[in-house]
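Q: Here's a chain of 294 amino acids. Please give me its 3D structure as tokens.
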Amino acid sequence: MISVNEAFTKFRSRLEATQGEETNASRRQQRIRAHLDASDLAISRDFLSGSYRRETKTKPLRDVDIFVVLEDRTYLSKHPRRVLDVVHGVLEPHYPGRTHTDRLAVRIDFGAQVVDDTTDEVMSFDVVPAFDDRGAYLIPDDFTGKWIRTDPTVHASKATQANKDYGGNWKPLVKMLKKWNEQAGSPVQPSFLIEVMALGILSGTWGGTYSRELRGFFAEAARRIDEVWPDPAGVGPDVSDELDADPTNMATARAALLSAEKSCTRALMLDQQGKTGDALAAWRRLLGPLFAKS
């Protein structure tokens, strides 16, 4: 039987993107871009962004962001839904029944089969129409009906610095936290909020074990979940605005974080008592089937 620390090392490795996933993401990105190029949309460039580019995306890979920078700025004088509808109209014939308009993007679902959270395919892409704006970007927000500024390069640099400060363990911890959120039914929305909270909570120096770092995060996050968590780039709306707008969802998120903290405490206690098998099972229940038990 492996130790809990060895299990976390395996879990970390299993959350890393494989070469197959990288190849699949690149191929599908190019195909989506080709469909967009064949339309009447004037595109200046596109690039992969979001948590995939920041290396904080958990597995299986879902909602990989493609920023598509458009040239027709007349959209900026219209409701943001308009450009989302146009992009949806371009992509739907190529992916019939698998395109959906979300708050900020048009999602394409590929329907890949997942067994025990493993697949080398990208499950879905989020196509984000964007416009250059003074070194940042304007993207549509159908939730607020406004155009919002964002700067994914700042998000990426902050994640890289946090990972360096934490001895290379910050990004793996964030992926573990996002996997918990997914296993728990996504009580913390959007998942980027977990990453933003981690910038504030997982600071200082690396504590030495993933198990205790996770428990510490859950405890602090439950206490601070109702704080305002601004955009790390300082240009967009608060990342916590969805939870802040709904007291019921806020209460659900806090309850889930408190429950996760209790589960961590229980798993740590089992390991201290020498009940390694039970501890491994407890961590697997919390973090999902990618967590190794042997």
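Q: Can you summarize the key feature?
A: DSSP finds eleven helices and seven strands in the chain.
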